[in-house]
Design a protein that fits this description.
The complex is a heterodimer of chains A (175) and B (176).
Chain A (H helix, E strand, L loop, with lengths): L11 E5 L7 E5 L7 E6 L7 H11 L1 H6 L2 E7 L3 H10 L10 E3 L1 H7 L11 E6 L5 E7 L7 H12 L18
Chain B lengths: L1 H7 L7 H11 L7 H15 L2 H13 L4 H27 L2 H4 L17 H15 L2 H13 L4 H23 L2
Helix pairs in contact in B: 1-4, 2-9, 3-4, 3-5, 3-7, 3-9, 5-7, 7-8, 7-9
Classes of the chains: A alpha/beta (175), B mainly alpha (176).
Chain lengths: 175, 176
């Protein structure tokens, strides 16, 4: 599995970003340039645990936006399947994030379950340079805590950038 | 400097020195160019938190043609210094490894996303460092600005602007 310090794979995928065919779009590694990206993968459309998590990510889209981050959900299902599911499930109609169709990307990330060939519940935080800063993976049945993802993002972004953060042993501030 | 002139006209006779000093430090006839001067003045005004001073300096800075990027950086520098001068001054004054080794766990992303330039942002931060008054903070920022290629004359003039604006805030209160 791709992990911290690795480059997130280049990709070009179809995505469902609404409730009609016009909302089927293409996303690439270059989409949302300059932003942090949160990728979360789930096993299958039309299952029970998934919408809870997806809705929770969607509810927090503004929290992520405040942190210069966009949220992208995805599974190995295709975009038409995502579209059908979003139309079928009441909670998914107002979703504020795209769902990508990512079987190839999932394979490259190393997050496909060997038996079922579906995505494990993997989460990645990717910095604006495309480097993975956080990677985690739950088994098929364990849901995620979105607050925890925000906490991790905050911690990653809380670099002490002020010159006042001078520590003993570093080059002296006088010279 | 129309708006500042109006503000200065409210000052009592006792604050005459402040009035003259402010005109001098903002005239940009010193070591700083007009962007450095007005950006510094605006950052300090925000940091001092006097609504009248902010309003006047903002209006005159815009009239002088200060770019949106610098207006934005002045705001950002003032806000982050509002936070960092408290936090790092605590660390510096306590001088304890117990605190120095703890991560601040505070966001300050905007510091590396300067809209104008990193060096200008750093220069704007110097005023608040002087206003808050912590030896280590002053030394740290001063070293950073010099490393960026600016001179002691320029740093000195930034601190003069912050000092006069501090005096102006007091003087205005004496007239209220």
């Amino acid at each position: 599995m791709i992990t911290v310090g690795d480059s997130f794979p280049q990709f070009k995928v179809k995505a469902c970003n609404g409730l009609t065919k016009e909302n089927l779009i293409e996303l690439t590694s270059e989409s949302y340039g300059g932003q942090w990206k949160i990728f979360f993968f789930y096993p299958k459309d039309f299952t029970f645990v998934c919408p809870t998590e997806i809705v929770e990510f969607s509810k927090n889209v503004e929290e992520f936006a405040d942190r210069d981050a966009v949220v992208i959900g995805g599974s190995a299902d295709n975009e038409f399947c995502h579209l059908a599911w979003r139309n079928e499930h009441e909670d998914l109609k107002s979703l504020k994030l795209p769902l990508i169709a990512a079987p190839k990307l999932a394979r490259e990330l190393g997050i496909l379950d060997i038996e079922e060939n579906v995505c494990l519940r993997a989460t990645f935080i990717v910095d604006p340079q495309g480097i993975v800063q956080y990677a985690s993976c739950n088994n098929l049945s364990v849901g995620r805590n979105v607050k925890e993802v925000i906490r991790v993002l905050d911690a990653i972004q809380s670099d002490e950038l002020c010159p006042c953060n001078w520590k003993k042993g570093e080059a002296t501030i006088n010279g | 400097m129309e708006n500042i002139a109006k503000l200065l006209s409210q000052l009592p006779e006792e604050a005459k020195d402040i009035r003259i000093n402010l005109k001098r430090v903002l005239a940009a006839e010193e070591s700083l160019d007009f962007e450095q001067t007005w950006g510094t003045a605006l950052t300090c005004a925000y940091f001092i938190r006097d609504a009248g001073i902010i309003k006047a300096i903002l209006a005159d800075a815009k009239a002088a043609g200060l770019s949106d990027a610098i207006l934005s950086d002045a705001k950002a520098a003032a806000c982050l210094m509002g936070q960092n001068t408290v936090y790092y001054r605590f660390r510096h004054l306590m001088n304890s490894e117990q605190y120095n080794q703890r991560p601040a766990n505070l966001r300050m992303m905007r510091m590396q996303q300067a809209a104008s330039s990193k060096l200008l942002f750093e220069l704007f931060s110097m005023g608040p460092a002087a206003l808050k008054g912590c030896e280590m903070c002053l030394k740290a920022h001063e070293a950073q600005i010099k490393a960026g290629g600016l001179s002691e004359d320029q740093i000195h003039d930034v601190v003069r602007i912050s000092a006069v604006l501090s005096g102006l805030a007091v003087a205005l209160d004496t007239a209220r």
